[in-house]
Design a protein that fits this description.
Distance between the termini: 19 Å
Oligomer: single chain
CATH superfamily: Transposase IS200-like
CATH topology: Alpha-Beta Plaits
Structural class: alpha+beta
Length: 132
């Protein structure tokens, strides 16, 4: 799918922290997520803020973090994000299942075991504590 996005456990944690800050800022909900080494799956329910602004903010802030850490410049994410409108509960469940089983299909996890877990000591870490 592309080049790596995450280079250490700290990078996964930073991405999740930025995701949480976006939730607090824009008021959207994250129903499911999966952070793979070279791509991310997010199942987001937007409120008043357009999805494009949410993704742009997250991508910009995470890219700035990685570029600063690795002393690099330029884009981290390749191309535009892909979005699908979910208008039925049955598809919502199917999409959440797809996201959670992504590491299993990639051979990184067995039968839906936790693929990666990130816990921090920050007060806001109660909502986002792992990717499946």
């Amino acid at each position: 799918m592309g080049s790596d996005l995450f280079f250490s456990n700290a990078d996964y944690c930073r991405f999740l922290l930025l995701l949480q800050e976006g939730i607090e800022r824009y008021g959207h909900r994250v129903h499911a997520f999966c952070l793979m080494t070279n791509h991310v799956h997010l199942l987001i329910q937007v409120g008043d803020t357009p999805l494009s602004r949410i993704i742009q903010n997250l991508g910009f802030r995470y890219t700035r973090y990685i570029n600063s850490k690795r002393k690099e410049v330029g884009h981290l994410f390749q191309g535009r994000y892909k979005a699908i409108l979910v208008d039925e509960d049955s598809y919502l469940l199917e999409l959440a299942r797809y996201i959670h089983l992504n590491p299993v299909r990639a051979g990184l996890s067995i039968r839906g075991q936790v693929y990666y877990r990130c816990k921090t000591n920050t007060p806001r870490s109660n909502q986002l504590t792992g990717a499946y």
